[in-house]
């Protein structure tokens, strides 16, 4: 933002060295203005003449300090009534007293929250006893339900800069319904029905351990080695290995294991969406009526960004499914 403001002041096409130099000055005044805008005690001291806040730039080459004086916006900022910086201000808590959030608005909130998180400008996290009490007394009304992976590197509330009450989170290894059909589908039906949530996000992430393990299982089977299923994790990986097989077929014979994993992560997101549409008549009806949207995404562990994938390509055909319950509880 500082560089953008500097460019606007110098004009598009300014030389890089001049832009950098001016950005340093803009940043000095930005810091001064932040102090004046968000600290009532500092504003009062400046107003009374007991304090001055001035800026300067130290030039490494000459050892000289260029004294820049007060912010040009000081008089305007002294009229501010803000008492806390944005990172310390409590965001509002969603409860049943708030209006239902339409799918497109919920998606916008997710995107904006992830943008804040990715650039290190998150504002969520401050919650008071009154807010907690409101969630108990008035009830929850999350704007989005998220099926995500049980991975400590992908904390979903944090990734979307969400407050308690904003999102309804379901997690398991691999963000899948393969071995948790009843609990995942039933919990989601509760959220869309009793809580009136209108957006569902199925979120995978890069470097997913479950998909890596499933891909390794698939490659072992392809090499003629029979997988040993001795624990629940083994069964999960075998169940997901078909996705690695599909990814391999779509990519072709020359695909590397890393490429298969990356593509299988995407296929798995849509596979979970398809499962929900195929085996929940309640979810299908809401999607068909336009009341609910189910979309996919992939969280990049390195960049912090979510790639929003949209709806499943199979949605139109799946909403005509006749299945009423997942296979495990049918």
Automatic annotation (TrEMBL):
InterPro entries documented for this protein: Carbonic_anhydrase, Carbonic_anhydrase_sf
EC identifiers of the protein: 4.2.1.1
Catalyzed reactions per annotation: hydrogencarbonate + H(+) = CO2 + H2O
SUPFAM superfamilies on file: beta-carbonic anhydrase, cab
Reported cofactor(s): Zn(2+)
Role played: Reversible hydration of carbon dioxide.
Family according to the record: Belongs to the beta-class carbonic anhydrase family.
Name of the molecule in the record: Carbonic anhydrase
Protein source organism: Durusdinium trenchii
């Amino acid at each position: 933002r500082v560089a953008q403001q500097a460019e606007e002041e110098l004009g598009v096409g300014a030389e890089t060295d001049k832009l950098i130099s001016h950005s340093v000055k803009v940043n000095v005044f930005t810091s001064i203005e932040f102090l004046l805008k968000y600290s009532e005690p500092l504003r009062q001291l400046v107003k009374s003449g007991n304090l001055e806040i001035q800026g300067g730039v130290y030039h490494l080459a000459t050892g000289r300090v260029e004294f820049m004086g007060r912010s040009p916006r000081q008089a305007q900022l002294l009229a501010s009534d803000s008492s806390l910086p944005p990172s310390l201000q409590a965001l509002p808590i969603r409860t049943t007293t708030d209006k239902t959030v339409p799918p497109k608005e919920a998606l916008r909130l997710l995107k904006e929250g992830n943008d804040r998180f990715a650039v290190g400008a998150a504002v969520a996290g401050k919650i008071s006893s009154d807010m907690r009490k409101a969630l108990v007394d008035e009830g929850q009304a999350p704007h989005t339900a998220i099926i995500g992976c049980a991975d400590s590197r992908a904390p979903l509330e944090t990734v979307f800069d969400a407050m308690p009450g904003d999102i309804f989170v379901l997690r398991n290894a691999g963000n899948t319904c393969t071995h948790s059909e009843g609990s995942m589908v039933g919990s989601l039906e509760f959220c869309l029905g009793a809580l009136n949530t209108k957006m569902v996000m199925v979120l995978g992430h890069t470097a997913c351990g479950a998909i890596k393990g499933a891909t390794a299982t698939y490659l072992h089977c392809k090499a003629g080695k029979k997988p040993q299923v001795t624990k629940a994790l083994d069964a999960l990986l075998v169940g997901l290995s078909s996705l690695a097989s599909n990814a391999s077929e779509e990519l072709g014979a020359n695909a590397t294991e890393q490429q298969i994993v990356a593509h299988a992560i995407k296929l798995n997101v849509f596979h979970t969406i398809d499962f929900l549409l195929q085996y929940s008549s309640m979810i299908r009806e809401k999607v068909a009526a336009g009341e609910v949207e189910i979309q996919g995404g992939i969280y990049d562990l390195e960049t912090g960004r979510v790639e929003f994938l949209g709806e499943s390509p199979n949605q139109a055909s799946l909403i005509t499914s006749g299945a009423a319950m997942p296979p495990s509880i049918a």
